[in-house]
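writing this on my phone so excuse typos. first protein, seq and then structure
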Amino acid sequence: MTLSICIFAYNEQHLLPYSIGALDAAAAGAPYHAHILINGCTDDTLLVAKSLASADPRITLHELPISDKANAWNEYVFRIAPDAHAHIFLDGDIIPSVNSIAALDQSLQDNPCAYGAAALPVTGRSQRKWAERLYVNQYLSGNLYALSADALSTFCQHNLRLPFGAKGEDGLITYIFLTNFLGGEDDSHHDRIVVSDGATFEFESLRLNWRDVKIYHRRLQRYSERHFQKSILYSLLKKHGLKAMPDNIGELYTLERIAQLRPRPHPLDFIYDWSTLRTFRSKALESPSEPPR
């Protein structure tokens, strides 16, 4: 059966051709079909993707009007995903290493209890610590991972969607798997995720230029939002189970909850956390809502 590859592309006109160009070597001869989800882009990513698709019938484009990765993930799982024995998820700004996709697929075949297979980074200043966290905690990295057909089927059976606006979908999917689709405190189901030694990925390191400074700024904003989302959402899911999963992450930001959050002490974290909390308060005042009971 053909592998299905889901590629999330948000403003990746420069790097997307490299990511697509690496698929054949990464799949190592395995048949595949790639679905590029053009995710609310404001640059020429769509034009680049159209050019790539016109040259390869194995590529299908899906243009989404909203720039939200969790929403794009839901679209793929519930609307786009074809029958396949494995589904590969990767970001359009990374390069899957040679044999990496085939290795992810093989890891799922070798571990029939596993819902997901994680790839490892081979670039970046923090790659060792990053890889160690994946190994020790059985985490998925959102840059490149694989899900089994059973995993997608179980998401659909439970009608379980990721909240709109959620940052760090990989951490949330990891939590769902480790709790065996139940939520709660018991996250000991480590057999549900396998780390694939043969699957690695590369990404372009940031440089000291205006484009990359803006990318780094947006990354720190996203990390700050993710930090507070995890604090609120995971405590809710641990207490009430997956039935407490909100449709929109904004539902969690009540004034009562925000008042209990504090910026992290590191100076750079503090600046972004302070700005994030101020934004949360403004949104909560505009549309107050009651927290789930």
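second protein below, same order as before
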Amino acid sequence: MKSNLDKNVQDSYKWTALSVTSLGMLVGILNASTLIIALPTMMVKLNTDLFGIMWVLISYTLLLTILAPAWGRLADIHGRKKLYVYGLAVFTIGSLFCGLAANINQLIAFRVLQAVGGSMLVANGTIIVTDAFKRNELGKAMGILSMIMAAAFVVGPILGGYLTMIDWRLNFFMNVPIGIITTVWAHYKLKEVAQLPKGETFDYKGMILFTIAFLTSMIYLTAGFIVGLVSLPMLLCLVIAITSFAAFLRVEKQTAHPLMDLDLFKIKIFSYGQLSNLLNSIARGAVMILLILFFQGPRGLDPLTASIMTIPLAIGLAITGPIGGVLSDKYGSRMISTIGLVISLVGLLGLATMHYDTPYWILAVWMFINSFGSGLFQPPNTSAIMACVSPERRGVASSMRAFFNSAGMVLSMGLSFPLIMGTISMEQMMNMFVVGGGSMPIAVQVAFTSGITGAFILSAIITVPAIIVSAMRGKGDMN
């Protein structure tokens, strides 16, 4: 797949592509970071429980995960720009409907619509930037993108806390004007850089089998800890997952144009980078929501104050995003990404020592260390994954990276929330967020906090194999 741009045009277009893509992804990041702050308030206002409100997050992330491979493959067939612009439009419409939702069921349904658009953005944003930049500049580009996302994480929680104090629906409505502007800008400024192949088809059979395998495996790995891993319904899910996954692998090997190009896993940097990405996503996916639940729960803080308390997470990402990208261009992804994961592990272990009355400055230090490590890991790992494949396979590569990232997020929440929900009764949990955690008995605050620290311990354990895998990726990405 060749580029449609000459060298002079590419030099100017690459910054246009980075700017437009950054703004589009900024909308998604702001939506995620502001919404997390609003969850406890939404739980009360929509008269639901923690399980119901978690589906506002899980439904979005679940669909994002399922659709990412499809959009990446379709981008290789029909073009990155077209799907990216469509994604912005659908995401914007979904945001509008979410803000108008009358109850929790409507909100979850409209979040599904929003996720359809969001999955197009996630699957295609990285491809657009990769197509526009040369390999020896890609780490820097990913670092800038990471810095912009981190800035959104800084602004998002504070903005979300402020908007939630006024009306939680504003967290959705604010996406509408930004989404409209970005959609128009992307339509007129983005270009189809790569020449698209002719005669390729979409693998519908593979998509159906993949969806069945993923959903049943997620049900087993998450609900299984509540229902019982060896219960009949969970064992049935496990059998369906294994059977459909085996059928999926057979279809992918036989079809001429597979949904996922499994041959990419023969590339060591790609396979090890994707695995470390998955493990890191499982480890970090629930960190912010766990801290928000702690600050608004046992600490009894309002949404705005709780959001300000999480700023150290964003500062760490903002500082190390560009640094990690630049260093990876010079030294390769293995050393930088692995060091980042080690630092992230230290932060998680620190957070796992928290008590209901731990001084904030101690929590702030551990938050900063954790996000500092994550920021050092992500840009080098992403640039290594994208740079090690040929241009005509970048759509599939990017969608698989998005899939593993989102799957890790789903697993992270699915594994963390049962640990919390089992600590106190639903009535006590509702009273904690309605009346204020500070007025609850000390024993309740201690029990709730123990669930959160248990989730951090699990995240730390999962980070260990991520470090090992990252260190084993080899030096093939050195320029």
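The chain has two domains: 7-202+257-471, 203-256. thats all i got for now
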